[in-house]
Design goal:
Blueprint lengths: L1 H4 L12 E2 L1 H7 L4 E4 L11 H7 L6 E2 L18 H10 L8 E4 L7 H10 L5 E4 L2 H7 L31 H10 L5 E2 L3 H5 L18 E2 L6 E2 L2 E2 L2 H5 L1
Parallel strand pairs: 1-5, 2-3, 2-4, 4-5, 6-7
Antiparallel strand pairs: 8-9
Amino acid sequence: DHWVSCFSISMASAVPPLVSASWLRSSLSTVRVIDASWYLPSMNRNGKSEYLASRIPSSCFFDIDDTDDVSTLPHMLPSPTYFSRRMSDLGIDGSSHIVCYDGAGIFSSPRLWWMLRVYGHHRVSVLDGGMPSWLSLGAEVEKGDATPPPAARSPFVAKLQPELLCTLDQMRTNLDTGAAAVLDARSKGRFEGTTPEPRAGLRGGHIPGSHNVPIDTVLRDGMMKAPEELRK
């Protein structure tokens, strides 16, 4: 597992950002697994339906579309109170090692990974290759309605880490200063505005001065490329 070996775990609370399916299978009883599958409308897939049809045992489902209580815009960061309640409802507390996965490989699960880190929970990893990687092992799956998760030992308390979040005002300032590099992980067509946006009413193009690093350029077969490849 090249990703696990790349990180020196010097503290008991530290966990690698990526874990393999084989690691997860051997560690399933010690972690909390969350399916964070979400798909663009053009993909014609439904994360919750796929979760009910086939999922990693004991996993729960996190609906990325049902997290916003502060804005009418899609996928904005929820308030600390709202996010704390959502995590507590899933049986997550501050000591949990969480492994996020999705049905596409690596697509929407890093969003939940980031949200947890923004709110101060660093014991979180992404399953490299997601559900396809799990299935490739021939590992066990559950189907049908899920058993409610066990209650959290203590309430989840979200604590905002502002250094991991950039506001609209900060982005506007950066247009003038160029102090921070801005990366856009969307496809080249969406970045250049030559491909229609998958959501109605959205303009094409990109933030001025940003750089395009399409997500598929850092993946191979739905899994993250090795560090030495990414450095190139």
